[in-house]
């Protein structure tokens, strides 16, 4: 049970809103110590994992280009394009992205990403649609649109990917189950992942509709 | 090798932010902030050749800097809204060419070569920077300034995914997974399919929330809970296995531990509330978790 001390530290740290990075490091060090590792071994694991997971942070290389384009009006342009579609709403734009993102994930097409797609294109389009409809929108609505824009990427990515027969998740399921003595094939697992992918798309579209209504209500309240 | 070059380039972006921070007179904590970004750049540029222990010490140092509130957002030039609107009118849809080139290179290279999507993204980023400079006729300095601005806005949270991966490695080494799996299996009544399925799906989601990673949870929870309570009761393994992993993803949507999906995007989109992404996702995640349980019960048995 004492091995769960690290989890307790994380929970308390998040509740007290302590510095996240320091809390995570403290939890790791404590877990290592109560798990019987010495300080040198903990440093080794910390350092090695940090270096092997650098790939999670390589989006840094895209920042100069995206920043430059933003300085020269990328968001404004995306918003203007969407403005030409009179019926567009933030929710509709995000629903379309959800469908495309899920199908792409199912086909293993690597379309998406918060840095590559959401910040430069999808979010400005969604916000542009709302601004086009209502003019100036309050901060609360802007935050909602940002939240949805980040979420749609996760929904499409997570629930679409296992429909692809050679997805990492599918291979993991097959490998783990075979090792435990249950015979399954990649094709069976990929097929079994289809219903949840479809349900996730439907739920996302419902959520985006609800948000559209919420934004409408906020705007009416402001009039 | 190509990936290592990409890490070096990322390190250079961080190094530039470090230098800008050191030089930023308006920033009270400029020394700590600059040090943070320079240390990070060292782990990126020299990560492969540095001893792991030394990197571990550098990581601890970064933690000390953020814990003592030494890392803050500096100042940078912001251009006016009028400038942006005017430029967007002049440049028109050409502005999309560089952005799309990031996406297209990531896609094509990831899809059709053995280099992988990340390397594709890196090449795309270089193409985007060069084509962006040509299209906007901006100076290279402006791109560097803008890279600094965005990285400062994303802030120290950018290292959270890597740190959480390290935390996962430490949890694994300490055997946290086994403790949780045995804890859950003690409270589940044996022989009851409904409780077994609930324990398997909820266990996947909860353990994923703790580890921040459904892949890490899958092997532990499947061996500890899935096999005794679900598979050995006659579940179709392909269906139960597929649903168990995506039940884990419901946990991913709910946890700050999955920082690169939930916390970093909040920083990238400059949200006021860094938990806003999780709050937005919570209703969908919980609904989907219930659907997973029902689906596994009616479809896998």
TrEMBL record, chain A:
This is Putative membrane protein. The keyword Repeat does not apply. Pfam families: DUF969. InterPro entries: DUF969 (IPR010374). The chain crosses the membrane at residues 7-35, 55-74, 158-177, 189-210. Signal peptide: none annotated. The keyword Transmembrane helix applies. Keywords: Membrane, Transmembrane, Transmembrane helix.
From TrEMBL, chain B:
Keywords: Membrane, Transmembrane, Transmembrane helix. Pfam families: DUF979 (PF06166). The chain crosses the membrane at residues 5-22, 34-67, 95-112, 118-136, 157-181, 187-207, 214-232, 238-261, 282-300. It comes from the Bacteria. This is Putative membrane protein. It comes from Keratinibaculum paraultunense.
